[in-house]
Design a protein that fits this description.
Helix 3 crosses helix 4. The protein has five helices and no strands. It is 52% helix and 0% strand.
Length: 106
């Protein structure tokens, strides 16, 4: 699938989160070698809703808390299974967030 990407920074994060859509997410996931499934979309949609409400990317602990409602104690492990190279490196990028400057990429 070819997609005209919205503007991105040097690390591949969108410079404007409002330019995001699900096709962009699929293309970004493909770049990260991630095949999106329902659990990925659950995380991504939660992150988008959080961003819409707060105008900042959700901290990983909020995403883990969201996942825990469904998965219990496995939530943190599951987040790192879904995004093996890290929450900021992959989840934030695929969900169309700007690069969170203050966070490590772990």
């Amino acid at each position: 699938m070819t997609i005209d990407f919205p503007e991105r920074d040097a690390e591949g994060y969108l410079t404007e989160p409002s330019d995001w859509n699900e096709d962009v997410a699929r293309a970004l996931a493909e770049e990260e070698n991630i095949q999106l499934n329902d659990d990925h979309w659950d995380v991504i949609r939660f992150m988008r809703e959080y961003y819409e409400e707060h105008q900042v990317a959700a901290d990983a602990r909020f995403v883990i808390k969201h996942l825990a409602e469904r998965m219990g104690r496995e939530a943190q492990k599951k987040l790192f299974e879904l995004f093996p190279y890290g929450y900021v490196k992959q989840a934030c990028k695929i969900a169309g967030m700007r690069r969170p400057r203050a966070w490590s990429t772990g």
